[in-house]
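Try this one yourself first.
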């Protein structure tokens, strides 16, 4: 197919080796990993190895990795799992979080638990100054994403963690857009909780994990069997867990450099054609994420016209595509009105080629010129 897929921040193609590694656990080795007999020994071992591999990718211990159904579940667990009846200390998050965090925060607010939403600067950065202004010794949790899904900005989690801990608060980071794309070490970052999702780094959909630092007091996500150290009951999805390989972790720097080249080609082609646009996000971004706002354009119209040409991009996050208004992220960073509605997100991944970056830019130029 001549289709160009440039929406890797929404999801990525399953790695071929990951698929092959998954098949035995879907077919012949279907034993329940929790059973004591010999037939379950292999899946149990595979589970332990996958856990150790994932843990090593983020500098964690295997027993600090809790498999979940993905980023949304991990985020909900981090926010809701810390609630204690009668403990009404504050949760602080940012205005540009993914809906999985924002909606979970709104849900706990409805139960009477206070939440403060930190503003960001024009690059989408949560600054230490902003956090220091708001945090008190009555803060229970700070949850700030590692990398934004719409504009790619990487947040200064290490600094924010220091501030949180100085006030006796825990820190969680939604690293769904970061794991497998930029190096992460939970100890260097100093985070207590970290969410990840395999389908964002060439793993299968429906599998992710929550890193929980040893000693962190958090309720189980689901009660039932003793799976996931008694913290997330339910028969393990061994195939998906095995498929959530750390493969990208081994090649992140090399893939990042290639994606940087694609970004330059894409942006350079638009610039040469005299398109009036601003690039959103900070200089410190996840590789391949390009959010631009084009003056006088409609992101919605561009998405659909590009789709007709066989090109998949996004106007923002996948969850926002049903809502054609300007996203909460674009509003929070204050993109001027005449540009805001013309926002698109092109996100290249490891399978994209340089020619595709040029083709996507040329298709955009062609659509804009035919309309203007
Ligand atoms: N958090 C961020 C930053 C995301 O980008 C996403 C997915 O778009 C999620 C959470 C939700 O992850 P999942 O699709 O695995 O539920």
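Now uncover the answer:
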């Amino acid at each position: 197919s001549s289709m160009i897929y440039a929406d890797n921040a929404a999801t990525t193609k399953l790695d071929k080796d990951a698929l092959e590694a998954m098949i035995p656990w879907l077919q012949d080795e279907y034993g329940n990993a929790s059973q004591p007999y010999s037939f379950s020994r292999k899946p149990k071992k595979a589970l332990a190895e996958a856990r150790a591999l994932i843990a090593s990718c983020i500098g964690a211990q295997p027993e600090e990795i809790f498999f979940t159904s993905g980023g949304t579940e991990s985020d909900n667990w981090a926010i809701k799992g810390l609630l204690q009846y009668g403990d009404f200390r504050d949760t602080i998050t940012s205005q540009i979080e993914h809906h999985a965090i924002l909606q979970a925060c709104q849900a706990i607010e409805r139960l009477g638990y206070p939440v403060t939403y930190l503003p960001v600067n024009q690059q989408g950065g949560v600054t230490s100054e902003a956090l220091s202004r708001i945090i008190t010794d009555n803060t229970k949790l700070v949850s700030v994403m590692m990398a934004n899904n719409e504009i790619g900005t990487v947040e200064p989690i290490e600094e924010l963690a220091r501030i949180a801990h100085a006030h006796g608060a825990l820190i969680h980071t939604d690293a769904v857009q970061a794991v497998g794309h930029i190096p992460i070490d939970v100890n260097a970052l100093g985070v207590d909780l970290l969410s990840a999702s395999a389908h964002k780094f060439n793993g299968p959909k429906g599998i992710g994990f929550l890193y929980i630092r040893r000693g962190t007091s958090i309720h189980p996500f689901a009660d039932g069997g003793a799976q996931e150290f008694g913290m997330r009951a339910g028969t393990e999805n061994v195939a998906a867990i095995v498929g959530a390989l750390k493969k990208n972790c081994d090649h992140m720097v090399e893939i990042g450099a290639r994606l940087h080249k694609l970004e330059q080609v894409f942006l350079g082609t638009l610039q040469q054609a005299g398109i009036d646009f601003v690039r959103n996000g900070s200089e410190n971004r996840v590789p391949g994420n390009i959010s631009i706002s084009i003056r006088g354009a409609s992101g919605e119209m561009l998405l659909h016209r590009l789709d007709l040409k066989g090109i998949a991009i996004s106007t923002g996050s996948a969850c926002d595509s049903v809502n054609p208004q300007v996203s909460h992220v674009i509003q929070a960073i204050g993109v001027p009105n005449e540009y805001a509605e013309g926002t698109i997100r092109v996100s290249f991944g490891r399978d994209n080629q340089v020619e595709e970056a040029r083709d996507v830019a040329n298709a955009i130029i062609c659509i804009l010129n035919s309309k203007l």
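Discussion: The chain has a mean pLDDT of 95. Residues 163 and 218 are 21 Å apart (CA to CA).
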